[in-house]
Amino acid sequence: MKIGIIGGGIGGTATARALLNKGFDVTIFEQAPAFGEVGAGVQITPNAVKAIMGLGLEQALYKAAFYPQAVVGRHWQSGRQNFRIDLGPEFRAHYRAPFIHIHRADLLDIFASGLPPEICRFNMRCVGVSQTESGARAEFADGSYFDADLIIGTDGVRSVVRQTVFGAGDLRWTGHQCYRALIPTGGVVGHTDPVSAFWMGPKAHVVTYYVKGGEAVNIVAVTEAPEWVDESWSTRASRDEMLADFDGWHPDLQRLFAGVTDVFNWGLFDRDPMESWTRGAVTLLGDACHPMLPFLSQGAAMAIEDAYVLAEALALHPGNPGMALSAYQDERLPRTARVQLEARERGRTYHLPTEEEMAARDAEYARRALEDPRTTGIDTDWVYDYDPRAFSARLAA
């Protein structure tokens, strides 16, 4: 089976690795001159780690990982701890995988470094996809085209594959902007704990965590923006802008922000879940079909899960891509739709506007923590429990 993958990000390269593991004829097309990711961190939760284990890449992942001690929720101004989820042996045993932090470029390299050079086509900007009698065709800006039995669109939130096959859709500005910065530390610093810290304040929140084995701190700072902000991750902002937007927040955050040199920001855009993301010999994967806000830390995780499940479905239905794509969509669409909508809801609960509303939310976190210390108020069991490796057994049953 001849397969073309449009987009060489984390989702595209993970899909290529998964399909190669199953013996498929794969070509991956990337519009940039090389595989590459911006300088930012990503949290890989146990569900995604299990998918990476299924691809046989866990040792490379663990080597590049930072292992946080806990997920901690804090009050934006006082630093009061509102919830804590310990990520030690008990957590790992329960979910059968760890919770880790990694630099996005390191994660991409785990997937991309093992790809045969001859299957990687760079400087190839896809301008459209169409159905053919025997499959599908991808067309490129240089006038060339690629015919395949299956075309997979892994080309992000503004997917050309999605637009040409399903229409432009409902991409909308959420009113939020996100600052990202990466601060070299030389190791763990005194005012930043080795945890995944969620600082929640009025109409804003900040997440800090270590990457690069503790050699850098990743900052994700989300606030409500008065006007539209570009969606590109490469848009530069300034430290002064970030400090002004978080004026009055806890001194530990102020000290951390003061060490920033390069700051990027981008606008957060959202879509409603799709009713279907497969048509004929074309399907979508990752942000192309289920872009999601970053408030549940599942964007990369969902793409990696997709990649594993799609390869399994195609392998389990040799010679019948239609049945395979139906199985893939039936497995993935309900889950990713739920994650999309829950991430949207977290954008509301993390950004409550008044101290009274925040106090009520935090009291609920404390109550739930007594019932189940493992998930506390953020209710992530249903996310982390999922194991894509069980898909094949369910499908075969």
Keywords:
397 residues; 35% helix; 8-stranded mixed sheet; 13 helices; alpha/beta; FAD/NAD(P)-binding domain; 6-stranded mixed sheet; 19 strands
Give a quick precis of the structure:
By secondary structure, the chain is of the alpha/beta class. It has 13 helices and 19 strands.
Structure overview:
With about 400 residues, this protein is of the alpha/beta class. The chain has a single domain, classed as FAD/NAD(P)-binding domain (3-Layer(bba) Sandwich), CATH 3.50.50. Helices cover about 35% and strands about 25% of the residues. Strand 13 and strand 14 form a beta hairpin. Helix 1 packs parallel to helix 5, helix 1 packs parallel to helix 9 and helix 9 packs antiparallel against helix 10.
Strand content: 25-35%
What percent of the residues sit in helical stretches (DSSP H or I)?
Answer: 25-40%
Query: Could you please say which CATH topology applies here?
Result: FAD/NAD(P)-binding domain
The overall pLDDT, averaged over residues, is 91
The CATH homologous superfamily: FAD/NAD(P)-binding domain
Alpha-beta content class = alpha/beta
Per CATH, which architecture? 3-Layer(bba) Sandwich
| Gyration radius over CA | 21 Å
Shape: globular
CATH class: Alpha Beta
End-to-end C-alpha gap: 25 Å
Q: Please indicate the count of domains.
A: 1
- The low-confidence parts are none
Tally of helical runs? 13
Strand order of the largest sheet: 5-4-13-14-15-12-17-16
Main beta sheet, described?
8 strands, mixed
The total count of strands amounts to: 19
